[in-house]
Amino acid sequence: MPKQRRIKEIGDLGALKALAHPRRQQILDHLALHGPATSATLARALDLNTGATSYHLRELDRHGFVEEAEGTGRGRERWWRAAPADLRFPQRSEQSDEMRPVVDEMNRLAFAADLALFERSQREIEGVWADSQPYSRGSIQVTLPELRDFFEEYIALVNRYKRADDELPEGARNVLTRFLAFPAPADAPEVQSAAGSAADEPTDPLPAEAKTQNLPDEQTEDLAEAKYDDTTNGAPS
Hints:
The protein is mainly alpha-helical. The chain has a single domain, classed as Arc Repressor Mutant, subunit A (Orthogonal Bundle). It is about 40% helix and about 5% strand. The strands form 2 sheets. It has a two-stranded parallel sheet with strand order 1-4. It has a two-stranded antiparallel sheet with strand order 2-3. The radius of gyration is 19 Å and the shape is globular. The model is unreliable at about 190-235 (pLDDT under 50).
């Protein structure tokens, strides 16, 4: 039975900016997919210097996004892991004028990174996992409370398949999942004309590979310090 994940509400602008930095997102992604690491191993994996990774880890630790991994280090080594939590960000209507561009930039960076990973997965995944990229595009007709319930049911389903290493069945691997839903603009073309139309049929693909690549160099630290990163309306990282 999967453990209930702690919900972490992030309403502080400083915490959002700390989380949204592109390099810090790389660090969190690496820790989430590959487990505990030191600043040195992160620097090698992400092509950074150890001073930069140490600084970013301290900032993430200050806001509770990473924590020391007990029982891992040797001597003076400090091993870090992503703090397990379901991160929730303010609803759009609750975001201040200063917060909204930060969240918008968070989303832009996250979607760009996801698209790059999806394209990489299409190029590189072979063998039995070559057919492991299902996706679906469609529409549903719901009220706002129903949409919120739909999202929570999706999160519960994802958490059901989050398992510790010693609970993994043979052949299991990391598979990236993403959820995106938004009201269709009034003048948008219809995605479906009736329930069960072809637009709702599952098609291929969605990334199945571990998230390990660097973000493009142009997504610089200067940009991120001014704006920032990852999820909207409660969607998890």
